[in-house]
Amino acid sequence: MAQLFAGTSGWAYPTWKPDFYPEKLAQKKFLGYYATRLNTVEVNFTFRQLVKETTIQNWLGETPAHFRLGVKAHQVITHIKRLKGTEEFLPRFLATIEPLAAAGKLGPVLFQLPPNLKADSALLRDFLAILPRAVPTAFEFRHDSWFSDETWELLKFANAGLCVAETETRTTPDVVTAAFAYYRFRKPTYTGDERRAMVDRMREHIAEGRNVFCYFKHEETPQGALYAVEVLREVNGEEGS
Known about the structure:
This protein is of the alpha/beta class. It is 37% helix and 18% strand. It is globular, with a radius of gyration of 17 Å.
């Protein structure tokens, strides 16, 4: 049965005490506690460095079987090479997160494109062609020129998800392109009506058999984590389920 995976894009924030983390909880125990309340996290530091095997093993040991770790693709792929000539680096990056896949804990890999990278269908088609089909992937486009039927069709053909990113200045069209849905909620606050609309949309996906991955804004305040707890409870019935 499809389900909602809800969390934030990081967990190592002492400023989330005491509203999310207990006041006396040691920082090295944050992930383990986080995983008792939420069932996924989007790992962002993989954007800047290749994760070590020991770090991966720590994550695996600190999270339950149902937990999923989404991973942001390295900047060499998206920002330096800009999806071109990645045939050597891409497998190297994917090899570092393979233990997550082997343990059944790998969420989608997010390819967040630079804001100044304009639509290029041939570029996207060629890159999608070298992605292993076994790896779940999602794409966040930050230039409006990508928002077109041609882009959606390319993603659908590769079963790659469209990251529906919502900020204070732009919202990606909510188009289904894969067997799962992927959301990044980046506004600092959401009204009760907005959160109820989120819950309704998540329930629609689940009723249609799609898992949903949604990640709220992280950083200094615990508000995003608390939103994720609320939405997860509303959709799945309980925290961390």
